[in-house]
Amino acid sequence: MAGLNYENLSALWRVPHLVELNIGHSIVSHAVFTGLDAAVRDLLAMMRGYSK
Q1: What are the phi and psi torsion angles at 24 (to 5°)?
Q2: Cα dihedral sign for 45, 4, 11, 33?
Q3: Which of 5, 9, 19, 25 has its CA 20 to 30 A from that of 38?
Q4: Could you say which DSSP state residue 27 is in?
Q5: Which of 22, 52, 33 is nearest to 9 (CA)?
Q6: pLDDT in tens, 1-52
């Protein structure tokens, strides 16, 4: 079983009415290589356009 990450986040767009996501481990792991600021910007860009 895989947790929520940058690769499978887009599949959640099919789930209506999401209020929050827990992507802690993935974003911290990504930040090790890109920096926290870039990791957060990358994640927000992926979530842009999601409507509840």
Answers
A1: -50, -55
A2: positive
A3: 19
A4: H
A5: 22
A6: 467 788 888 888 888 888 877 778 888 999 999 999 999 999 888 888 776 5
Tell me whether residue 4 is in a domain: no
* Burial of residue 39 (number of CB atoms within 10 Å: 0-12, 13-18, 19+): buried
Could you give the CA distance from residue 21 to residue 9 in angstroms, rounded to a whole number?
A: 9
Domain annotation covers residue 20 = yes
* Domain tally, the chain: 1
- Cα separation, 21 vs 10, in Å, equals 12
Sign for the pseudo-dihedral over CA of 30, 35, 38, 40: positive
Q: Is 35 left (phi over 0), alpha (psi -120 to 50) or beta?
A: left
